[in-house]
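ok trying this again, last paste got cut off
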Amino acid sequence: MKTKTIILTLIILNCIFIVRAQDSFQEDVNIRPFQFTFLFPPLSTNGANCSNTVSNFSLNPLVGYTGGTDGCELAGLINMNRHFVKGLQISGFGNFVNGRTDGCQIAGFSNINGDNVIGVHIAGFANIVSDTASGFQCAGFTNVNRVGNDLVGIAGFANISPDGLSETQVAGFVNVADGVDGVQIAGFANIARDVKGIQVSGFVNVNDTITGIPIGIINISKTNGYRKWEVSADEVCYLNVSFKLGIPWFYNVFTLSKPAGDPGRILYGGGLGSEDEWGEKWLFNFEASVHQELWINDNNAPRFLYTDRLNMISRIRASFGYRVDDRLTVFIGPSLNVRTATLAPYHLGIGDDLEPYWGDNNQHYYRNTKVSIWPGFNAGIVF
């Protein structure tokens, strides 16, 4: 019951603050060197005139409400300012400023600002700015700004700045920005319109256009992106189907391959690649990838999808492509392959021959692991 009462009181006080904060700034505000609030407004040294008083130093053991702060304001629970804050503002729960903030805000839970923020913004849960934020923001959960200019945002969950330019965004889950001139780092996703710099995510990066590098499992660039399918063959697999996604000079490769042998035996893999244009017709691609053996619906396997053991090919390859037209490219090129396979136990007892016969000439054994190295080739089409 006590917790519910405190929460309800905070909500009521916040609503009162929001309603009263709609008044326009009064030029004839009082300026006082010191303000003390006994419990909550208007029980303060500024009395009923607290909303029109700017203080150089405010001390609020519980909740304080002033016209503004030009210096320092401290509260055990909440600081509320009708017009502006210049300087330092610290509270155990929240800082609420209707107007502009220049300086540093630190709150145990949240900082909420109705106008521009320039400086440092630190909260245990959220920083929310309805206009422009410039400087540094750090929140345990989220930073939200309508406009973020030259902004460094660090949040445990999300940074959201749908308009303006952000310099650096770091979030545990997602970053959203109109423009990024620097770095976006997120545990799950980065979303931006125009990126000049680097996007790094645990899963997906999305942008309209990027001048830089997107690093993630899925990278989608709407304007200057790279999205192509490849069908090819090599000395191990008579069929490889690959999807390439990213930007031309830095893209991800996702591949399914069918080697010789049992129908249920495939290789799945992925890697990175880069493409360079050599004139109007010729392309050069360099790729590095890994491919692991997988059994699908095999009679000897205990599950529908089953990996018997480490049986992997690591490959670097170069390819020289010729553009037949705007959509179709044919290519051929060399590769260097390294197969790594554990020797025992053989649960299935099949499928030991992933290297070609000339790969048998260069084998090395390390305890229960066999390593084979051989040169190869690749040829196919890209569309």
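PB: full thing came through this time. The longest strand covers residues 282-296.
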